[in-house]
Amino acid sequence: MRTTKSKTILRGLMLGTALAVLPLSAQAAEWRYAFEEALNEVQGVYATKFKEYIEENSDHSVTLYPFGTLGESADIMEQAQAGILQFVDQSPGFTGALIPEAQVFFVPYLLPQDEGQLFDFFRTSKAINEMFPELYAQQGLELLTMFPEGEVCMTTQEPVTKPEDLNEVKFRVMTNPLLVESYNVWGATPTPLPWGEVYGALQTGIIQGQENPGFFLESTKMYEVTDVITCIGHNNFTTAVMANKQFFDGLGAEDQELVQNAIQSAFDYILEYQKGLQDESLAKIKEAKPEMQINVLSEEQRKPFMDAAGEVEATFIEMTGDSGQKILDQMKADLSAVE
Ligand code: 6CS
User: Fold this and answer.
1) Spatial distance between the Cα atoms of 125 and 335, rounded to a whole number of angstroms
2) Ligand 1 pocket residue status of 171, Cβ below 6 Å
3) How far apart are the CA of 212 and the centre of ligand 1, in A?
4) What pLDDT score does 14 carry?
5) Which domains does the chain show, CATH number per domain?
6) How confident is the model at residue 115, as a pLDDT?
7) Best substitution site from 67, 70, 91 to test ligand 1's pocket, by max atoms within 8 Å of Cβ?
8) How sure is the predictor about 188, in pLDDT bands with cuts at 50, 70 and 90?
9) pTM
């Protein structure tokens, strides 16, 4: 979404880049941080906490760029890689196109549904904290953290109680091949689209379904353009915060520590912030549109969706080879450690 407004902002950013990122720790710098959601959505709440920590604990300032101000997710990633932005939040749903191993977050039923286990996994995972940073570094990115954003549910026009109900449903997915594979295996017609096109595509009938975590279904009013929410427990939405690597490596030790502390402080906050958020969001949807059907499938109903997960995992290994196998094995070991 390259609007004239976002082009103008971008030109301004490029002009200011040289001045803003002088690598002198002692000098007050202005850092730029873009994310894929609005300020009051999970990524925006995280970014606000990060900004607050930096500004309370240093002379630096952080300017936040919510979704749409600088374009789509792919645009902000390009800008971060080019050093126009110092920080970016991009979920693996999009990064999977750049770093294939990041698609591991789309192997259905890999992440636990239990919130305590899930949070412990994100806190302690070696795959996330030790292995993924090397892969992101190869793309010029310093991976600072990953955190969950809530259980992903589908929204469709018709009820879904079994994979056959997805037959012929044009289902929007984020732009990564493994997510396409999941919905293929479940019998839908997956349609990768950037986020900015989803509401309009549902409204005009170009697509008939999409998936996202509860808070996002509510805040972006997905319920206005679909009639049924179906939760099958197949995933929790993961996102990642990164810095431009050259910028981060050029910071003094004190500023690197400041950034790490801000990341940790916002991480602790965002996990706490999300407790109960899924249920509250689904309740708000019901209040806004009482006729909206919200179906949480039983274990038995989920079984055919779960049975197909093995095929998606095999495709992940085909796509990523040894490197993906190592990540998957480590994730499974990290997950057993928190069970
Ligand atoms: O579905 C998407 O594309 C979006 N979903 C979330 C929860 N955050 C950002 C992303 O662009």
Assistant:
1) 8
2) no
3) 7
4) 61
5) 7-19+29-149+237-277 (3.40.190.170), 153-235+278-312 (3.40.190.170)
6) 96
7) 91
8) very high
9) 0.94
